[in-house]
UniProtKB/TrEMBL annotation:
SUPFAM superfamilies in alphabetical order: Translation initiation factor IF3, C-terminal domain (SSF55200), Translation initiation factor IF3, N-terminal domain (SSF54364)
Domain of life: Eukaryota
Family: Belongs to the IF-3 family.
Start-end of Basic and acidic residues biased regions: 75-87
GO molecular function: ribosome binding; translation initiation factor activity
InterPro entries (UniProt xref): T_IF-3_C_sf, T_IF-3_N_sf, Translation_initiation_fac_3, Translation_initiation_fac_3_C, Translation_initiation_fac_3_N
A Gene Ontology biological process term: ribosome disassembly
Name of protein: Translation initiation factor IF-3
Keyword Ribosomal protein belongs to the record: no
NCBIfam families according to UniProt: infC (TIGR00168)
Record-annotated Translation initiation factor 3 N-terminal domain positions: 98-165
Amino acid sequence: MARVTDFAFNPPPSLAPTTPAPHRAKPAVSRSSFFVRFPKKPIREGRVFPATKVAVVARYGGGGGGYRPGGGYGESRRPQGDARVADPDYDPALDLDRVKSSTVRLLDEQQNMIGVVSKNEAIRMANDADLILAILSVDADPPVLRLFDDMDYKKHKYEQQKKKRVQQKRSAANRVDIKELKMGYNIDSHDYSVRLRAAQKFLKDGDKVKVIVNLKGRENEFRNIAIELLKRFQSDIGELATEESKNFRERNIFLVLMPNKAVLQKGQEQSKKKETAATEASAKAQ
């Protein structure tokens, strides 16, 4: 029995790389880069094999797009995108790179108007007077900058942070959430009343309510009953809400109710009057 295995050999001149054209880069090829690979099959006596295929493999370096550690072929090891860590001490008002205009409108430390000057001139004035140059409005045309001393800038920064917190509270108070209530077409009276009270509470808090009736499989035959259930629910809510949208065509039919602001305001005024009357009555009793 004999076995043919891989062996290395030096290529003859016919396989050696010829001199490349002047416009092509010459690949770096070593003499040991070529080898012939035969299939590792046993040779049996009296059996004729077809011509064995010879695979000539060449490995050489050079050229772009090679493998680089940490990435695929042609990829750089440099991290993609902005990999910088956010600085907790970063102050956008002091980041003059945000000012793309070559001229700015400058105010002095007493908030007096200096006028329109170049950005470099404003920076020079701040450095000469040992003052802080801060951005008041980067979107203005031209951007508005002001000179501060240390104490005044700390006060200014505190006031700006205070205003930002107030705006965030107002936006949170004005935000309207959507509360979902799900029912079956054959819901019992107790569960129905629980969902009705929950919807009334959500609406009084200023939130929208989405009432959903899921119809699964053959339950789609009771679509008319589910629609009548939603209409009954809307009627029981009454003037506390108005209809925003509805969908009675899909398998999961729903009804979206939004709070009636006029009714809510009247209710709040009446509750305040009752509280005032109770307070006055308790004061007279004392």
